[in-house]
Amino acid sequence: MNNTAALLMLKDGRLFRGYSFGAEGENTGEVCFNTGMTGYQEILTDPSYCGQIVTMTYPHIGNYGVNRDDVESSKIQVAGFVVREETEIPSNYRSDQSLGEYLRSVPIVGIQGIDTRALTRHLRDCGAMNGIISTTDFDEASLKKKLKNIPSMAGLDLVPNVTCEQSYHWNGNASS
User: How many domains does the chain have?
Assistant: First the structure.
């Protein structure tokens, strides 16, 4: 496991300390959760998660790695990724790289080693809220100030961020 410190702070001040497993840096977004045991690559590239920091409730994520075929769009859509524990060495014949390698290549900040059950219960009780993942700034006052400047997801027009750049026609006769 990477020993680079990382933290997740929610808009209400709740703080979770863990370790980086994606790109180094800082990113903000609406923190939400997904209860799937598999499908993390599809979740990362699903346009419906654009601008969100997704928390996976299943404790071990990354077991089967990442491959070129299981994407839902042309890029990662999430703003950040939160897991209890990332599997550093995937075991699947289709795997091209580990989840951590994938996040570093795009680059998306990920955090592991936090109590995702406590985070999920907090989000369930209080609702999705903005948050910030950081591997560079650990000053709570500074992070709270940054969180105050993040707009709510409600009413944001995210279509330009997730749509294709050019229209295309689908004839339905493509071979598989």
Answer: 1
